[in-house]
Structures are given as C-alpha cells and as structure tokens.
Amino acid sequence: MTKIFTPHEHQKVAIAHLQKYKRAAVWLPMGFGKSVSVLTALENLKLIDDVYPVLIIAPLRVARTTWPDEIKKWVHTQHLKISCILGKVKERAEALKTKADIHTINAENVPWLIEKLAGQWPYRTIVFDEASRLSGFRLRQGTKRAQALSKVAFKSKYFFELTGTPSANSLAQLWGQLFFLDQGERLGKTFTAFRDRWFRQSFDGFSIDPLPNAQKEIEEKIRDICLSIRAEDYYPLEKPIVIPVPVKLPPMALRQYKDLEKKMFVELGKHKIEPLNAAAKTNKCHQFANGAVYVGEAAEKWEEVHNEKLEALGSIIEEAGGTPILVAFNFRSDLVRLQRAFPKAKLLDKDPKTIADWNAGKIPLLLAHPKSAGHGLDLQHSSNILVYFSLTWNLEEFAQILERIGPARQKQAGYNRPVFVYYILAEGTIDYLILERLETKKTVQQILIDAMAKRDVKA
Fold this sequence. Notes:
Blueprint: H1 9-20, E1 23-27, H2 34-45, E2 54-58, H3 60-73, E3 82-85, H4 89-97, E4 102-106, H5 110-117, E5 125-129, H6 144-150, E6 158-163, H7 174-182, H8 191-198, E7 199-201, E8 208-210, H9 214-222, E9 226-228, E10 241-247, H10 251-263, E11 266-268, E12 271-273, H11 278-290, E13 292-294, E14 302-304, H12 308-320, E15 325-328, H13 332-341, E16 346-347, H14 352-359, E17 365-368, E18 385-388, H15 395-405, H16 407-412, E19 420-426, H17 431-440, H18 444-458
Parallel strand pairs: 1-6, 1-9, 2-4, 2-5, 3-4, 5-6, 10-19, 15-17, 15-18, 16-17, 18-19
Antiparallel strand pairs: 7-8, 11-12, 13-14
Helix pairs in contact: 1-2, 17-18
C-alpha cells in the first residue's frame, strides 16, 4: 500500500539542501528518511533539469531492498522504474540492460560496472549511500572502487553523498568524501596538502592529529555543501528514538516459514520440524525469523535458514561509524551466529572487566541476553545505540536491557545525546506480533488469538 509523503522538518531541510547544490552531502542518522528525501529532491529537480537516469551505490542489502521498497512505498515515487545490478555476472549484465530511471549497485561491483560500460556513462546523477566508504580515497591509491568511481564521478552532473558518520574516527576521513563533490576545491587538491595544512604527526609516528584550529576551519570550508542533521535538534532526548529495520526473507525461506506457521511442519535439509503444540510452534517461528531453527533432540543442534538479520546488523554497524553497539539476542543460536559474523563481538558475562572494557570503548559490539542485563548495570558510558537482533515476549526483560543505556542513564552520566533503538524485524513473521505485544502490553495469548482471527477473515 502506497502512502502520501509528508516530510518531517529535518527532511524538509535535507530536501531543500539537495535541490540547492548539484553536488552535496547530507549527514543524517540511519532511519531518519534519507532515501525518501533523496527521491523527493530528484522528483522536484526533474521539473527543471534532467536528473535521470540515477545510479545509487549502496551496501548490498540496502541496494537490494531498501531503495526498491522506498520507491514502491510512496505515491509520488511509485512510477519510477528501478533495476538492481546485483548478483552474479550474468544477472548484473541483464539488470544493466534494463531501461530504468534508477539503477542500484553495491559498492564492490562499481569497478565491474565501469569496465562493462567501456567509456560510456549514462548516469546524470550518482547517489552514494554510506559515503564514509569513500574516506580512504587518494589520487594515486586507495580502494579499487573509489579509484574506479573517481574516473567517472564528474561525468555525472549531480553527485549526492549520504551517511550518518562522515568522520567517526578522524577529521582526516573527510578529504576523500569531499573530493568527489568539488575535486579538492575546499579541502585541498591532494590529501597531502590537506594533511599538511590541518594536521601534525602523532607521537606514535604513524597516525596524524588535527591542529587546534582544524575542526573549526574545516567545518567552515565545507559548511555550504555538507548538511549535518542532528537528532537532538529535532527530537526530545527524554525518549529513545526507535527505528524499525525491516528485512525480507529469501523466497524459499519465506515459503518454509509459512509452512511452519500454517501446517506446523517443515523440512529443513534432512530434518523434519513438527512442533507438538502451539507454544512450540511459536518458539520455532521465532527462531526461524532470526535465521536458525533448532532441529532434532540435541539441545545445541540447529539449522541456519537465512542471514538477513545479520546483514541488517552489519549495515547498522557500518552507519554507526565506530560507535560501540549493544545487541540484544534471544537464542543460543543467535549468539553463535553473531560471534561468527562479527569476531570482535564480546558476550556480556559476569566478569567485571567486560563491563569496564565496554564502558571504556574497547568493545565494539556487546552481545547481551536480556536476562543477563539485570538491574544496576551501567552500560551507557561508551554507547547510545541498542539493537534488538531479536525481540522478546517478556516486557520486563525488554525494558530492562533498554534501561542499561536509556535516556535516564545517559542524562545521569552527563551525556547530552539521543538514544537510538533499532528493531530488526523479519517481514511477514512473528516478529511483528512480538512487537505488538511490547507496544500494547496485551497478553501473549491475546496477541496470538487476534492474529489467527485476522488470518481466518482473510481466508
């Protein structure tokens, strides 16, 4: 179902900025509507100039689902045709041949695209979603994708950069991003010139530190084309900013999930899953939504069915730009898969050193079961980001882990910053029933009864 887009105040500011400058950056937190703001600006700009076709370069999951979903979601953009240049070489080649207003591609395949086009460049506009990936660009070195993109970037009249963390680790990250907007006009024609003007060698002899005046002068140089939108300027700090992150299950996984949900039976590889009752089925559906289902009689034996939530968490980590993240999980299989996907992650255990290291910013990803995040734990010092990889039916446990880094804790510790809470939700699954339970405080039984009644009516 499409919706009429009514922009929030911060989106109005972002749209106006993109319409004013042909090459510009918008620094906006994840979940604040970057995609629809860009699409709206493009639709407005096309009334006075040719902005299509557009190439959107984004992380794989975002290129595959987020942008197509945004286009379908809104009345004013649903007419746009989009083709995703993803997958194997043959699939990418076919997608590239498809005539469309918008092509999306993941950054890793940009060199392939440029080589495939063989000197031709049809795109009037480039949108680089998660532009911090351009930070390592240098004129004679850097990542292959940034080097390749630099050869065609100025063949496009419009170039928009989107990110929530342009310089999470250092001001030095800005030069590469700004070069794609102005070819070094503001921060220097080369990284060396940029470094020599605003930095000095660190005591370790390897890194560089900004000079005392660097922050202010750099901000002043880029103020016109770089728009920074802070959550705290538009939303009260007394409440967390909740951002749902929907993910689509692969077609086969979704079919298997529906079989489990309706028939109480599904085959996963060599294993047959047949819950004995409604409670067991609910638990299996919950596991399936997360990506792995327990099979057989062995307590630790499970079958992986999809990685969509892991990919979504990866996108959140990337957008956080180095800010530590607290992740709530539910099942042991969740923990194992999270540790495999993110080797630097650490489990919240009973060791006091774990909490000390987390609060000191030494742990990039802290994995916690809500039951382990008991009352009295202070986890707010290094982070203001909580991700529910898996929601829980238990209202107390749900609230308890949020309270560890919530607005009250932040305020008590003297931090004037918003708290971001992400729900990773598998579309078409029990995740949304659990969320309804948490938002309405209905009983689990009533939620399930209501859900079954709705399905009966549809049937």
